[in-house]
Amino acid sequence: MEYGLIGEKLGHSFSKIIHEMIAGYTYELKEIKKEDFNSFMESKDFKCINVTIPYKKDVIPYLDFISDEAKKIGAVNTIINKNGKLYGYNTDYYGLKLLIEKQNINLSDKNVLVLGTGGTSLTAKAVLNDLNCKMIYQASRKKEEGLISYDEIYNLDINYIVNTTPIGMYPNNDGRLIDINKFKNLSGLVDVIYNPLNTNLVLDGINKGIKANGGLYMLIAQAVYAIKLFKDVEISDSVIDEVYHKLLFEKQNIIFIGMPSSGKTTIGQIIAKRLNKDFFDSDDLITETIKTDIFSYVKANGEAPFRNVEKEVIKDLSKKNGCVISTGGGVILDKDNMHNLKQNGIIIFIDRPLELLTPTSSRPLTSTFDALKKKYDERIDLYESYKDIKVKNDKELTIVVENILEVYNNEIISY
After folding, report:
1. Given a cut of 90, is residue 363 above it in pLDDT?
2. Using an 8 Å Cβ cutoff, are 253 and 347 in contact?
3. Residues 384 and 251: beta-carbon distance below 8 Å
4. Cα(first)–Cα(last) distance of the chain, in Å?
5. Which residues, other chains included, contact 255 with Cβ-Cβ below 8 Å and sequence gap of 6+?
6. Any catalytic annotation for residue 56?
7. d(Cα 345, Cα 348) in Å, to the nearest integer?
């Protein structure tokens, strides 16, 4: 292996895409079991590698040189093999620092809580110290000197949180380590996890109305600094923003919500083709699951069992990256559905005026205009509350599609 990433589990990683996008070399993802770690490091069969969970501290004894930054932190995420001598660095430091600074929050008078005790937690503490935080607390599930338990954190006045644990990371997107609503004076947080794009912790922060960001920007920034070391070249920090928006465009799902017959599926299929993304219709997937049409299923079983199936389908769809997804009209009735969809998606509300909507016999809950109007009145506020973007569908289809693409591109740029 010339260039690559080592770790125990790498199914979630975007690093291959980032390195190959920026540097052009082949970048491998190499999963290494703990029992094979020693032989890999001793063989030195690589040119330049990055290191992730759980080996950022474990690699240190194998190194011939450690940069001052990495030495101070006590963790290494970048190693270069120079004629059999291993040189270790920590580019996570720069990535996390840039991510926090991007939020424009002054931490000099803030009490900060670091979640986790792995290699990235050491990086976080070094960054926070250099940002002159008032107090840094570190939470752990293990009771050790200098650490606090997760039961004790709610007794503290916490202003900012940095999550360095893998809780909430794909494929276990359900994970939630703490309840941030118990912190009265919390003003911001970052989560180093980047898959999903928005973990439960980040979404909780957004819902709380504070600055909250996932780790994608950090991942790209640390990769740029690693490439500088790998290739011994200068790369402008502007590349970080450029790649961030490209990767966000590639990995973020586009989710269409709206009333039945509002045009979600037709528009979604066109958008998917234009952007070269996979398309999924949640109602089609539900039909595959229940092995009959939705009308017959609801008529025989009622609406509640249908919504339970829908919830499971949405949960699975939400874990995908880079797709266009059309949802059923009632998906917004369950807050968990919308929470899950927002982990990797941007929500676009297709707002078609009531008079242009069409009742059909194949839709059991909106088979007549009166039923359609009733559902519209019940749901319109929910569509509005969950949307990131709203687009009117009251013109020719081509005009509506172009309008969606323009608004979406502007949203990505400002993200």
Report:
1. no
2. no
3. no
4. 35
5. 325, 327, 341, 345, 346, 347, 348
6. yes
7. 9
Q: Evaluate whether 150 touches 175 at the Cβ level (below 8 Å).
A: no
CATH 1.10.3720.10 fits 94-218, yes or no: no
Distance CA 414, CA 403 (A): 17
- For domain 3-90+221-239, the CATH superfamily is Leucine Dehydrogenase, chain A, domain 1 (3.40.50.10860)
Are β-strands 323-326 and 253-257 bridged in parallel, bridged antiparallel, or unpaired? parallel
- pLDDT for 258-304, tens place per residue? 999 999 999 999 999 999 999 999 999 999 999 999 989 999 999 99
Give the containing element (helix H, strand E) for 204. helix 200-208
Global pTM? 0.93
- Exactly one of 47, 56, 182, 231 is catalytic; name it: 56
CA–CA separation, 10 vs 350, rounded Å? 36
* Mean pLDDT within 28-44: 97
Residues of the chain above pLDDT 70, percent: 99
Query: What would the DSSP string read from start to end of 29-86?
Result: EEE--HHHHHHHHHHT--SEEEE-TT-TTTTGGG-SEE-HHHHHHT---EEEEETTEE
User: How far is it, in rounded angstroms, from Cα 232 to Cα 149?
Assistant: 43
Domain residue spans of the chain: 3-90+221-239, 94-218, 252-414
SS3 150: coil
Q: Take residue 168 and report the two structure tokens written for it.
A: 């909430």
